[in-house]
Amino acid sequence: MSQSTDRGDASDTTTHATTQGRPGGAARTGIAIGSLAIAADRLSGALLLAVTGALFAFGQDGLAPLIGLTGGIALASFLVVPHVRRAGASGLIGFVATRYGRIARAVALIIAGIATTTLVAAELKAIAAALSVGTGIQESQGLAAALLVVVLLALAAGMPALTRVQALLLPLIAAALLLPLLWPALEAATLETALPHLTYGQKLQDISSLELRLLEAELADPVTLKAYLRPFISMNVPNTLLLIVALSLGIAVLPTLARRPADAASPDDARMFVAMALVLVVMTVLALPPLAAGARQALLADMVGQDVAAIPLWILDTARHGVIQICGATPVSQEAVTAACAALDDPPRLLRLDDITIDRDRSLFAAIVLQKLPAFMIPLLAGVVGMAAIAAAAWYLVAVRADLQGPSAPAEFASSGAPAILDEAGLGRPLTAAASRVAIVMIATLAAAVASQANADIMTLIAWGLSISAAGLAPAILLGIWWSRTTSAGATLGMLTGFSLTAYYIAGTQYFPSEFHETWSWLSAAGYGALMDYEAARDALSAADGDAGLRAALVEAARPVANWWGVRNTAAGALGMAAGLQVAILVSIVTPRPSGAARALINRIRNAPDKV
Asked: Could you tell me the pTM of the whole model?
């Protein structure tokens, strides 16, 4: 068969396939609606809070999550999405089933379910934070309310309805982020005020000047101060690069991302779905760096250095939103602040930078308070963030439900006269609608438990979820598209290796750091000071015979030393992906070649001629 003929057949198959011939009988999704929905899905409430918190707290180092987000969408647009659409699969899980069979599909479903659980936990945590700031309810109550709303929406809504909802949400997200930036234009209508991005560089210089001034006045500790403009302080270069790789690959192979492009009219349209979504995401997130910088500047200029005995009223007003703590206490009154600061070992006369605590997960809301913007913006922003998080969490669950109960085989190949890749019996039996609904309720409930017990912020939960996705799914999906020699055994073992290594590293370094370090101390890159702190905490626990407080202190002291080569657990997906990729390649080399039908599928996906 000639190359031109094969391409013509593939184009005809993908472009003119009917709705009935698509997996699950799904209706086409328009490019505009699909792109808006994908962008809103990526700009979920959890991600908005996490990225703003990272930028506010770490400055230059906080750009790594943004790079990972945009890089992942870009990778999906040319490495994954159009090829999955050309395969006619309903999504990435359907592609894995078609390419490798039912065992690989089962493994991919389990990995995707665990990654989804972690990501839904991040969204639930974001909803709870938004409810707490906007209404004043306890975060535990907000978490329960978030779980109920998300589960009800996931059970009641279908994919088309959620797609339309998220498409409508993106303009609201953009408006809610731009309003705090553009509000000063109402008071001073100048070009620089109307476009805060033009003054972003000046704000960064002002922050550096303020940091130096605070150091000279001994209102900031040179040990704990993280210079806003100096890169690689919070994370070194290897960890930054590994985090970007883990986030990018995790997003690129996230099953929920490929769901909407799978309904595109053609592979080119599928690519356009994601490319346009990338443009929309970039245009929207450009508001976050100047917003975070403005909040940081206001913190250093207006809060640090205030007289502890005469706290301004605008600071005391922040107590009702719960976004700021002074000397470890919520500033509900002047007396409360004075008493809290007096109880410190080194009571301050003027507020120092270390006396002020702002939860990274609430930095987006704190930006409104610190810059003394109108109070109505806080509930407005909290409402938009909450709605974005609810829609994103529901979409995760609905996508999992579709993977569990939807047909796995690409019906377009059967209707086009192409050779059968795998028979339906070999793809595994889908769950019934009732069973899949029970499954997503269990996932949501487990996610709520993770959100309440994980002892991790939103950014960490997102990084863990995407690391699991990258390590567990990327080897099989990328090799399945780009290397026809990949076998089912290689892909399955590669997924298991990548997922197992990443899950072990995250759990070991986060929850069992002492045991992890004792096992792998020869691979640790911890410094001398961290090792001495750990040994002191270990000796103190041994002498006290199991005191609970000392055990908790040992866990905290062990986390900085529990690592392989200094890699943080938020970047563990890069390690797992590398290991899974090697295992998949080696096992594929030593196992029999894939069948001719499987190789024909790859040639068809890549618009290549059949090879003998």
From this structure: 0.90
